[in-house]
Design a protein that fits this description.
The structure holds 2 protein chains of 2 kinds. Chain A is of the alpha/beta class. Chain A has 5 domains: 2-75, Ubiquitin-like (UB roll) (Roll); 123-269, Alpha-Beta Plaits; 277-346 and 531-715, 3-Layer(aba) Sandwich (Rossmann fold); 350-431 and 447-453 and 474-525, Dimethylsulfoxide Reductase, domain 2 (3-Layer(aba) Sandwich), CATH 3.40.228; 747-865, Barwin-like endoglucanases, CATH 2.40.40. Helices cover 29% and strands 18% of the residues of chain A. In chain A, the strands form 10 sheets. In chain A, strands 14-13-25-24-23-15-16 form a 7-stranded mixed β-sheet, covered by helices on one side. The radius of gyration of chain A is 29 Å and the shape is globular. The model of chain A is unreliable at 860-866 (pLDDT under 50). In chain B, strands 3-4-2-1-5 form a 5-stranded mixed β-sheet. Chain B contains 17 helices and 9 strands. In chain B, strand 3 and strand 4 (155-163) form a beta hairpin. Chain B is an alpha/beta fold. Chain B starts with 16 loop residues before the first helix and ends in an 8-residue tail after the last helix. The chains are: A alpha/beta, B alpha/beta. The interface between A and B is medium-sized, with 35 and 28 residues.
Chain lengths: 866, 422
């Protein structure tokens, strides 16, 4: 116990902290500039000078550790004079262009000078000059304003782990610059501009467009890009978003954001937003009122239901829509159409991975908390690059490394390259997985907790040496890897979408599960949509009711029926693949698509969509799918409605409405209107009413009042503790072997890049300014073999088609694979491949992805880049 | 006094191992390895009362004790040869003419500390010393004074030269360590001190060249004998580098505590050109200036503070009556501004401001109130900076203004120098 006195107040400390933190504990705020919560102390600005009894000099409170018996004074004339002197020093080279500077009004330097002075400067000579930098498309740097607090450098190094900027030069000619000068070579997370106390690093997106006091409204919200669910605040003026800012101490992201979250919000205000409904008449989409479109849709759906039966109607839910939207969609399907044909693009990887793991380990196995990754002593990553798919989750992995943990990545380490002790690049990921699992079983023995799993684990028969040789993995490196894994006490496994991209996905997933089991790890599944978990929980599954209760269990069905007063269709519905297959056969008569661009991202969807008699698309843009619809309904987008998302750690988070959409309606309200036209006497008319019903229907959500969900969200019902020990049935293909010997040739796989995530990001001008055209990523080895250099134009040919694209050579690509993203309209992945459903996991496996790559003469480039 | 550190220095081949061995070199190391435990060496150095010669005068034995008690391994020994304090060139003869003395001192120290890796952090502007040191290290490896099995006694110590890139601040031990780690040369927060958390987070002893060069002699004659040399509170031989307006500038090895008067008038031959002594900077530019009435001060760590200054590096800069004190201050401030690392506000911004004002005074553009402004700015720096660099800058201004106010006032009133043609 440490006892000290600060400004006459007795402070008791359990653990030694700095005087600054001790003072904050008792509500005394010592002024600071370079200090920032969560960053290592720096001691440079000298504003936190305090007087300590018996010490002759003033001391910096941010670096001085509290000691028993210390007597500290934080304000007196001497201290005030010293602070004024420091501020006068800071101002001699500060341009004092406050009337022009965007930071004015929320500038820490300005606020401190207002408090401590000086009222006038005595510096009479010329200030240093340094040109403002517009080298970066979305960041502007004005180093004349910099006070060299180095918060940006420290956040970049210590929290983001990008190491992109540093202080160059010396003395008063020190400036914060990228190492090589010019443009940042970084992830554009923009966390440097969050922490900048002055106007030295700022966003270009809203440069000179507002003053901080112009902000009329702030709305607490959740990012609309990925499944991490970063909390942020949207600032609005005149119904238009000025900017998004994160708040330290709030949410899983604790003040950090990634490039998509911070800069990618402008898509929501693009001119191409749908402002009216459309109905196809005489082969053309004609604008109509929303009411007319809804009435027409209700009529058509009822007609098809009566004529062809409810099982000929299907719906696609959306990982971009809120829980309420998704709940209402399944409500429409189950109770007003009478069909369980509801699924979503989460079927491609998220649902199958989560459900498979749940079958092995029990429900809620992925309900682990993200900060736990940073606190774990080791992270195993398999199946994708978390620093791109879920960037802020990726930061937790970097934090684990910083805290001394081991990071092991199966496959190219990508954004974790600096954080892995060695890189494993097997020719065949599956072979490495089985070898590791086998070694773990041999060295660790079975834990004896999960009989089903252990029985299956015993079936694996492989000769480790052979497998390693096959996969070209050096044995010493393998031994190091296994040794590192065995040493972990508290590990985490992060699973990504690519685990399903194998000949037998269930086997890969099983091997991953085996590793999770033997390590006793907590498992996280990456999610590139904000609400994949939510749509599952809301019952947008063909075989599950809200709360993920199986339809075949009569008791659940009865419970729901008694609440709704309507029957629940008892036959499990069709999943995404089955619906598209039905459509191709001409048996799916109507499809209701909410917030999903099926045509764009599902290979081979064109034929299916064309065969559907009545296609309804409810979206915020005229997407490629909407262009083919019979009715298009304009939906309100992110921050235009209130609601909740459930992130990948199953944290239920509420977001507020920040602005009123024009000419469109919330997804759930469109659905409510539709149901009203289909015989619902009293559909829910508010989010609260949806919840009133939901809490009765879904056992997962009993007792939740969405209004009570605080800024930290609600970890429900698992409280961050998965329900373990539930042993379920699961299948796995060809477990015995053989292993190794992946497919020959160059395979095209889906890239999930940092700057883009799909239909949403490609409409963000900010994100397009960072990357405006698609690239085919190739490993250096393959590029060399093909005689290709960076930025060469190539023709990529598969059995499905051909396209021209620019090459980007990247070490983040495994040799034998080429990566192309699904993020630009003309050139994208799903045009080149096919897809099949894996019978065991029900996930999607891309097929026909063997490609031929030929170099094109460079003049062809313009035509393609259009 | 018999020369100890600069023994054999007049021999043109003194830097060769052969010549060093001829005058008894490496016999102390042999003695240590054969007869003494690491703790014995530390005790001997403690007994000797040796104090660090870099400027702060911290008891060397105590520093070693702290580092050797820290349970963390590996430990590092770093020789601070970043001799950058203006006026200081005392380490240079050791580095260039007697490198094996330093190497022997380092091996003995490393043995005492159980450090197996050592660096000589050499000032970037000493390229010749680098050549000499590297050749000497090569010779020492060959002769078995360095390596994995020193003198066949199973002692391991590896030594290399790390050349600085020209930053004065890297003479500050924590900035030096940052620089060795490949980082930007800026001081670290203390505590923790390098003896516990130094290079790569490990216990690290940073000693000045001259300090380490004293070690073989202490071992040779014993701490008790050594203590008899020079001042009782800080014994030993001391290298004084004397420069500016004296007849015989140079490095003088004299007992610690020799008076300034003796150094200037007996050893350095007095003031040149028949001029009068006006001021002495006794310990490098960062130490406060002394007026002629104070030159009976003994030059050691204990006495100089009583006379209002500090021993610093023992760089005696003698200024005669032809020198303009405003110009000296301005020139010094150009140095501090240029060398301020930029980490902390008062030093980064304040040194430039002081230089600006002094430049104005020197250029005949001074205004009434500038002297008060100078003092106010200097006081705002003093005691508030991250490391002592800023304090040094402030004390130069404050001591010159205090001791020679009339020259500053003259500059403001007459727009020219009080002395000389200026």
């Amino acid at each position: 116990m440490i006892r000290l006195t600060i400004d006459g107040i007795e402070v008791e400390l359990e653990e030694p902290v700095t005087v600054l933190e001790a003072a904050r504990k008792v509500g005394i705020k010592i002024p600071t500039l370079c200090w920032f919560e969560g960053l290592p102390p720096f001691g440079g600005c000298r504003l936190c000078l305090v007087k300590v009894e018996k010490l002759p000099k003033l001391q910096t409170a941010c670096t001085l550790m509290s000691a028993d018996g210390m007597v500290v004074e934080t304000e007196n004339p001497e201290i005030r004079a010293a602070r004024r002197a420091m501020l006068e020093f800071l101002l001699i080279n500060h341009p004092l262009d406050c009337p022009y500077c965007d930071k004015a009004g929320e500038c820490e330097l300005q606020d401190l000078v207002a408090k401590y002075g000086p009222e006038a400067g005595r510096f009479a000579e010329g200030k240093r000059r340094h040109p403002e930098s517009f080298d970066d498309p979305i960041i502007v740097r004005n180093m004349e304003r910099c006070v060299l607090c180095t918060r940006c450098v420290r956040v970049c190094e210590d929290l983001q782990g990008a190491y992109a900027i540093t202080v160059t030069g010396r003395g008063a000619h020190s400036f914060v610059e990228p190492f090589s000068g010019g443009r940042y070579d970084c992830e554009y997370c923009g966390n440097c501009l969050t922490v900048c106390p002055v106007g030295a690093i700022m966003s270009r997106l809203h440069l000179h467009s507002y003053r901080p006091w112009f902000v009329q409204k702030e709305a607490e919200t959740v990012c609309s890009y990925c499944g991490v669910g970063c909390r942020m605040v949207v600032q609005v003026r005149e119904n238009s978003i000025i900017r998004t800012i994160p708040r330290f101490g709030l949410g899983v992201n604790d003040g950090l954001l990634c490039v998509r979250g911070r800069f990618g919000y402008d898509y929501i205000e693009q001119k191409e937003r749908l402002r009216t409904a459309f109905i196809r008449k005489d082969g053309e989409l004609r604008p109509v009122s929303i009411e007319e479109a809804i009435e027409y849709t209700a009529k058509k759906l009822l007609q098809i239901k009566d004529t062809n039966g409810p099982e000929t109607i299907g719906a696609i839910a959306s990982g971009r829509c809120s829980n309420e939207d998704n709940y209402m969609l399944q409500r429409l399907m189950r109770f007003f159409i009478g069909s369980n044909n509801i699924d979503s693009s989460a079927r491609l990887y998220y649902i199958p991975i989560v459900q498979y793991l749940e079958r092995i380990f029990g429900q809620g196995v992925t309900a682990n908390l993200m900060p736990g990754i940073g606190r774990s002593d080791g992270v195993v990553v398999v199946g994708g690059d978390p620093t791109r798919i879920n960037p802020v989750l990726g930061l937790q992995i970097r934090a684990c490394h910083r805290n001394g943990g081991k990071v092991v990545v199966f496959g190219p380490s990508g954004g974790l390259k600096r954080f892995v002790p060695y890189e494993l690049r097997p020719r065949d990921d599956e072979a490495l997985l089985v070898a590791v699992l086998k070694a773990l079983i041999e060295k660790k023995g079975m834990p004896g907790e999960n009989k089903n799993l252990e029985e299956r684990l015993k079936e694996i028969e492989v000769e480790t040496h052979d497998v390693l040789r096959e996969a070209s993995i050096e044995e010493p490196l393998f031994d190091t890897l296994v040794g590192d894994l065995l040493g972990l006490q508290n590990p985490v496994v992060v699973v990504g979408p690519e685990v399903l991209q194998a000949e037998r996905p269930s086997r890969v997933l099983f091997l991953v599960a085996g590793i999770v089991y033997l390590l006793g790890a907590r498992v996280f599944v990456m999610s590139d949509r904000p609400n994949y978990q939510g749509l599952m929980d809301m019952g947008c599954l063909p075989d599950m009711l809200p709360g993920e209760r199986p339809i075949e269990l009569e008791t659940f069905r009865h419970k729901v029926e008694s609440v709704m007063g309507r029957p629940v269709p008892d036959k499990a519905g069709m999943n995404l693949f089955q619906m598209l297959e039905m459509a191709k056969e001409g048996n799916l008569k109507a499809l209701y698509v909410m917030g999903d661009n099926l045509y764009y991202h599902m290979p081979d969807a064109e034929e299916a969509l064309q065969s559907i008699d009545f296609l309804v698309v409810q979206d915020i843009f005229m997407t490629e799918t909407a262009e083919r619809a019979d009715v298009v309904l304009p939906a309100a987008g992110w921050t235009e409605k209130e609601g909740t998302f459930t992130n990948l750690e199953r944290r239920l988070q509420r977001f507020e409405k920040s602005r009123t959409p024009l000419g469109c309606m919330e997804d759930w309200r469109l659905l409510a209107e539709l149901m009203a036209h289909m015989g619902d006497e009293r559909p829910p008319r508010t989010v609260a009413e949806i919840w009133d019903e939901l809490v009765q229907v879904s056992p997962l959500h009993i007792g939740i009042n969405p209004r009570e969900i605080g800024p930290e969200g609600m970890i429900y019902p698992y409280h961050g503790e998965p329900l373990r020990g539930v042993e379920g049935e699961f299948d796995v293909e060809a477990l015995k072997g053989p292993y190794g010997g992946g497919p020959e040739g160059l395979r095209l796989i889906l890239d999930r890049p940092l700057y883009h995530s799909g239909s949403q990001s490609r409409r963000s001008r900010a994100l397009r300014s960072l990357q405006d055209s698609p690239v085919l990523c190739l490993s250096p080895e393959d590029a060399r073999d093909l005689g290709l250099e960076d930025a060469d134009m190539v023709r990529v040919t598969s059995s499905k088609g051909m396209l021209k694209v620019k090459v980007a050579i990247s070490e983040d690509v495994a040799s034998g694979t080429a990566r192309l993203s699904n993020t630009f309209s003309e050139v994208h992945f799903s045009r080149l491949v096919g897809i099949r459903q894996d019978p065991v996991t029900t996930g999607g496996v891309f097929t026909d992805n063997l490609v031929k790559i030929e170099k094109l003469p460079s003049e062809g480039s313009e035509e393609v880049m259009e | 006094m018999e020369r100890i550190l600069l023994k054999n220095i007049d021999n043109p081949e003194s830097h060769r191992l052969k010549e060093y061995e001829r005058v008894g070199g490496y016999s102390s190391l042999r003695k240590v390895l054969e007869q003494m435990s690491p703790q014995d060496v530390i005790e001997e150095v403690k007994t000797s009362g040796l104090r660090g010669r870099g400027g702060a005068g911290f008891p060397t034995g105590m520093k070693w004790e702290f580092a050797s008690r820290d349970p963390k391994f590996p430990k590092y020994l770093i020789c601070n040869a970043d001799e950058g304090e203006p006026g200081t060139f005392k380490d240079r003869p050791i580095l260039e003419r007697n490198p094996h003395l330093l190497i022997e001192g380092m091996v003995i120290s490393a043995y005492a500390l159980k450090a197996e890796i050592g660096y000589i952090y050499l000032r970037g502007e000493y390229p010749y010393a680098k050549t000499v040191l590297e050749e000497a290290i090569r010779e020492a490896y060959e002769a078995g004074y360095l390596g994995d099995n020193i003198l066949g006694r199973g002692v391991r110590f590896h030594l290399s030269v790390h050349q600085g890139a020209g930053a004065y601040i890297c003479g500050e031990e924590t900035a030096l360590i940052e620089s060795i780690e490949g980082k930007r040369g800026q001081p670290r927060i203390k505590p923790p001190f390098p003896v516990n958390v130094g290079a790569w987070g490990m216990p690290t002893v940073v000693n000045n060249v001259e300090t380490l060069a004293n070690v073989p002699y202490i071992v040779e004659i014993g701490g008790e004998e050594y203590k008899k040399i020079g001042s009782p509170e800080c014994p030993g031989p001391k290298l004084y580098s004397v420069s500016c307006c004296v007849k015989r500038p140079g490095v003088y090895e004299l007992p610690m505590g020799t008076t300034l008067r003796e150094i200037i008038y007996e050893h350095a031959g007095g003031i040149r050109d028949g001029r009068q002594l006006k001021a002495v900077i006794p310990g490098g530019i960062s130490t406060p200036v002394l007026t002629p009435d104070r030159i009976d001060c003994p030059m050691d760590f204990v006495s100089l503070p009583k006379y209002g200054s500090m021993l610093g590096s023992g760089a005696v800069m003698v200024l005669d009556d032809s020198v303009c004190m405003v110009k000296v201050t301005w020139r010094a401030m150009r140095f501090f501004e240029h060398e301020s690392c930029g980490k902390c506000t008062p030093c980064r911004e304040g040194t430039g401001w002081l230089r600006n004002i002094l430049e104005r005074l020197e250029g005949g553009m001074g205004r009434p109130g500038d002297i008060e402004l100078l003092q106010d700015v200097a006081k705002s720096i003093q005691g508030k900076t991250f490391c002592p660099l800023g304090d040094g800058a402030a004390s130069v201004v404050l001591s010159f203004v205090r001791n020679f106010p009339e020259e500053f006032e003259f500059h403001i009133k007459e727009k020219r120098c009080m002395v000389g043609e200026g």
